[in-house]
Write a structure and sequence with these properties.
It is a single chain. This protein is mostly helical and about 220 residues long. The chain has nine helices and no strands. The chain has one domain. The two termini are about 30 Å apart.
Length: about 220
Amino acid sequence: MWQSLFMKEWLKLRWYFAAALLVNLGVCMKILLDIRQLIQMEHGEMVWYQAIHLHTLFYDPLRYLPLITGLVLAAAQFMPEISGRRMRISLHLPMDQNRMLFLCLLAGLFHLGVLAVLDLLLTAGILLWYFPRELALASLPTLLPWINAGLIAYLGAVHLLLEPSWPRRVFYALVFTALSSLHFAGSGYGWLTPALPFFLLLSPLALLSVLDTGRRFRQGGVS
């Protein structure tokens, strides 16, 4: 049955995923062209100075892209289910409800993960083409908090869509907005690296909380 479930999620997400893939590729292409133009217009020493001493993030256009992608994929995946009340029917299928919701979330997170890996590889590859290896590798701990913010945004949006109680929705909206905004604090290479283990722990915790909201959604908001 899980194969059918994944196929159902893929059919819902495929066009939104394709659009997100094109946007991510376009942004990476813009980063490549911007660096190339900067090197052609300015002295190489100036570009080096900006990269090494000023910690200019040439890949800053990627900052909010995972977050926006997470919100879009969550809406594409769960809005049709909520508006048509099909989710409540699906939760009564002969399958453990937590397992079914977990597999749905896994499908959405997988699509986000594919885009995240693509961004990491393309960004590192572009930087390796123009800068030393150390500078390219420094992009990874810088990008990871932004990517994790996308995962938190995805799980938070699903949380809000499934939550039957409006006061709880407002509360969760504030919590997930605060958690996501923490991932964008500071600037420069690896600014949030010391806090990265804590941030990465937030995603599985958010996943568990969505499962609890799914249970209350199935029970019509009864705690």
